[in-house]
Write a structure and sequence with these properties.
Elements: H1 8-16, E1 22-26, H2 32-40, E2 44-49, H3 52-60, E3 65-67, E4 82-88, H4 97-107, E5 108-116, H5 121-130, H6 154-163, E6 166-174, H7 180-184, H8 186-189, E7 192-199
Parallel strand pairs: 1-2, 1-4, 2-3, 4-5
Antiparallel strand pairs: 5-7, 6-7
Length: 200
């Protein structure tokens, strides 16, 4: 199999998945994460993806994938069907993030997510000094063509989990130059954060 290089958040997600576990990857993209998990950790994994061109990439990697819209929910899956349900940098683009998050912890014994942090200080400064919606490597869109409809911060996600009675088991704040500031003040200095959560 080709050598697969993962984004920073996907590497952290991969580290949180136990070998030989059963995994569902929502919005699995081109299947890189699942392909790596299947190859290196012997997981039983499948994905859900909407875009046809990404589904083709998944099948080329030998990754089982189903074409579904995450806005329709996960009602086709029974409770605790998977050890892990994964969602990377996608929560902000679904119609009801709260509904999907509840479905994730119902279907999976644990859920692992990465989220974009709108509280990152550079994004705050862009809005403050330019008066325009921020753009960055993490948010490479203009306000009018972005698929991201529910942008929030790390604190927003923590509050959402609390309101849904979801327990945060692990939180890994990330930045290209991760340091002690990222660790101790994640809402201000992390561009992205990975969360491992479960039902309370």
């Amino acid at each position: 199999m080709e050598n697969i290089i993962l984004r920073q958040d996907l590497k952290e997600i991969s580290n949180l998945v136990a070998p030989k576990s059963k995994v569902l990857d929502l919005g699995c993209g081109n299947g890189s994460l699942l392909a790596k998990l299947r190859s290196e950790k012997d997981v039983i994994g499948s994905g859900i993806e909407l875009a046809q061109e990404r589904i083709i990439k998944c099948t080329e990697k030998g990754v089982p994938v189903v074409q579904e819209n995450l806005d329709d929910g996960l009602c086709q899956f029974k409770d605790n069907s998977f050890d892990y349900v994964i969602l990377s940098k996608t929560l902000q683009s679904v119609q009801r993030p709260d509904h999907l998050l509840k479905d994730m912890v119902r279907v999976g014994k644990k859920a692992i997510l990465s989220i974009i942090n709108m509280g990152f200080y550079r994004l705050r400064l862009q809005l403050l000094f330019t008066g325009r919606m921020p753009e960055s490597k993490t948010l490479p869109y203009h306000w009018y063509n972005t698929p991201n409809t529910h942008l929030g911060t790390i604190k927003d996600f923590q509050l959402l989990c609390s309101s849904l009675d979801i327990k945060i088991i692990r939180e890994i704040p990330l930045n290209e130059n991760s340091n002690s500031l990222t660790k101790f003040f994640p809402n201000l200095f992390a561009t992205t954060s990975v969360f491992k959560v479960t039902k309370n």
